[in-house]
Amino acid sequence: MTHAPSPFLTLPVTVDYRTLPTHVRNAFDQHMEDADHARTDATYKVAMVQASQTAGIAVPASLDIARCSCLNDTGGCGCGSIFDTALPGAVVTAANDPDCNLSQLQCPACGHDHPRPITD
Ligand SMILES: [Zn+2]
Ligand SMILES: [Zn+2]
User: Fold this and answer.
1) Domain for residue 118, yes or no?
2) What mean pLDDT comes out for the span 101-106?
3) Ligand with minimal distance to 68 CA
4) Which residue blocks in 17-116 are alpha helix, DSSP H?
5) 97 is in which domain, residue-wise?
6) Angstrom distance (rounded) from CA 65 to CA 63
7) Residue 7 is assigned to a structural domain of this protein
8) Which ligand sits closest to the CA of 116?
9) Is residue 3 assigned to a domain?
10) Is 54 inside a domain boundary?
């Protein structure tokens, strides 16, 4: 892992899923699905890079992004932020399902304002 400047540094760090055109959302969903079901670390990282690029955000050093779980959660505020899961303040709201890779997370803003951390 090198620390050379990313060519994507001028891109935003987060984007709101709700503002993306439908075809971009569909492509993003597919890449996240691929990441969720990736069987190898390499496959997972490729899917995450593709998801980041599809969403139009800077590919984070963590190679791990999430869409705020407030979008679909019962009682969620509807936030659709796509963000780097390594950002301080992101809150895990649900663990990954069996045979899946992705946990559910709230973005740092939601995690600060109305956190719903895992209770079990
Ligand atoms: Zn949020
Ligand atoms: Zn929220």
Assistant:
1) no
2) 97
3) 1
4) 22-36, 41-55, 108-113
5) 15-113
6) 7
7) no
8) 2
9) no
10) yes
